[in-house]
Design goal:
The chain is α+β, with helices and mostly antiparallel strands. Helix content is 25%, strand content 40%. It contains four helices and seven strands. A hairpin with a 4-residue loop joins strand 5 and strand 6 (89-99). 16% of the residues are buried. This is SRPBCC family protein.
């Protein structure tokens, strides 16, 4: 079983972070391995919405997956579960308001300590199947590094 959690402080209010992470058109701007993400049937995201995602896999091969929104509670909770795909790793993003942006612009600026901020907790869990099950320890390390980089990129995009 793969389980990992990455926490990131983002100097933006939870509503702004939630809007960004739940926008399929913005996914490839912060998840480097994402090629595309499209809502099946169009329309806004909500509980039960399905998305077709394409990710860059090993050796540049494209891997398609179908994911379903399993939690949608603006502006605090968003989760996806894999319906079809090579790597059955589900994801959950929890957002918690925090006082003090600490990291965006100049932290010594007037009001910087009171600026709205968000603690984002990104959790991934799943059980690889087949040959991937044998590579689980390596896969865990690779995914932790990749998801940490994605969260750092998200922070960078939102604080820019």
């Amino acid at each position: 079983m793969i389980e990992l959690t990455i926490e990131t402080e983002i100097a933006r209010p939870p509503a702004a972070v939630f809007a960004f992470v739940t926008d399929p058109a913005k996914l490839s701007s912060w998840q480097v391995n994402t090629v595309s993400a499209e809502v099946e049937g169009g329309g806004p995201l909500r509980l039960g919405t399905r998305l077709r995602e394409v990710h860059r896999g090993p050796r540049g091969r494209e891997l398609a997956s179908l994911v379903e929104v399993s939690a949608y509670e603006p502006p605090r909770l968003f989760a996806l579960r894999i319906i079809e795909g090579a790597l059955p790793i589900d994801a959950r993003i929890e957002l918690e308001p925090r006082a003090g942006g600490g990291g965006a612009a100049d932290a010594t600026a007037p009001g910087a300590a009171d600026a709205p901020a968000t603690r984002m907790r990104f959790t991934a869990h799943g059980q690889p199947r087949g040959a991937l099950r044998l590579a689980q320890p390596l896969l865990r390390r690779v995914l932790r590094r990749q998801f940490a980089a994605d969260c750092a990129r998200l922070k960078q995009r939102l604080e820019a």
